[in-house]
Amino acid sequence: AKSAGRRTYRFFQPDMDAQVTARRLLELDLRQAIIDGALEVYYQPCLGLQDNKITGCEALLRWRHPERGMVSPAEFIPIAEETGLINQIGEWVLMTACAEATTWPDDINLAVNVSPVQFKSGTLALKIVSALAESGLAANRLELEITEAVLIRDDEAALAILHQLRDIGVRIALDDFGTGYSSLSYLQRFPFDKIKIDRCFINDIEEPEGSSCIVQAVVNIAAARDMTTTAEGVETKQQQQLLRALGCSEMQGYLFSPAKPAAEIRQLFFSHAKK
Ligand code: C2E
Ligand code: CA
Ligand code: CA
Ligand code: CA
């Protein structure tokens, strides 16, 4: 490994070299974080747009770094994926979140993000089965969020895994819909239960030349194929109203609540239910 490192070293620009070093350091820190228990799962509630009831929560990883403070998952997930650490981390998130969700009211579901690396690992179905068994969470309360990245390249293999997961009884959501290689044909070929419409389409939904017609189209396709839709990143009342009018099923965003620690979320269920 050392000689390979030396061989590639020459091709790096000085700033690239610094970047590589920074990534290595982050990787080491991340390994230590797993040992130290510095990772935490936060939960962001998701609301029905018609009745304003909490329908579920998405588990979102947090890293409390001793010097850097909170490190965003957007920063460390890619490194965890490159190094394969995501398998270990992802399994821990799944176990932790499933156990937490058993303390919630029965009608509140749990959504967990699954990295393409986990998806392709060949052991995902097994890990899901054991997380459900160990926690006692009903399979139909668990939703896995996957991105299109798992669908490209090997259709057949991806489809086989999706069917395996379906057989377990968990639901599957297509995350970040509309970004990346997004192709409408994915919606036809793969068995999703839910489409999560990416924040970028919600941002400008109120503008005259904005994305409301795209959101409308996605909502229509989803309805025709018996899927529900969740709008991500809803920050204003106006966005909420427009999404409701467009027939979108659920919303998630800072307007109602950001992701919060487990204890705060439990309190929120209680106070929200009383209203
Ligand atoms: P994502 O799955 O698309 O999650 C939504 C992100 O949007 C979260 O960022 C959430 O905090 C943020 N968000 C929610 N509502 C709003 C809003 O109203 N406005 C804005 N501006 N942002 C909002 P977060 O928690 O930083 O996570 C970033 C990404 O990291 C996630 O994107 C997901 O791809 C990944 N991630 C987080 N936790 C996990 C995990 O346990 N496993 C895997 N594989 N990936 C994870
Ligand atoms: Ca997600
Ligand atoms: Ca998303
Ligand atoms: Ca995203």
Features:
10 strands, 49% helix, globular, disordered N terminus, binds ligand C2E, binds calcium ion
Brief account:
This protein is an alpha/beta fold and 275 residues long. The chain is built from twelve helices and ten strands.
Describe the protein in words.
There is one protein chain. The chain has twelve helices and ten strands. The radius of gyration is 20 Å and the shape is globular. With 275 residues, the chain is α/β, with parallel strands linked by helices. The chain has an eight-stranded mixed β-barrel, surrounded by five helices. 36% of the residues are buried. The longest helix is centred in the first third of the chain and has 23 residues, at 14-36. The N and C termini lie far apart (60 Å). Helix content is 49%, strand content 20%. α2 crosses α3, α3 crosses α4 and α4 runs parallel beside α6 (124-135). The structure holds ligand C2E and calcium ion (3 copies). Residues 44, 59-61, 72-74, 77, 90, 93, 113, 115, 175-176, 199, 233-235, 252-254, 259 line the site of ligand C2E.
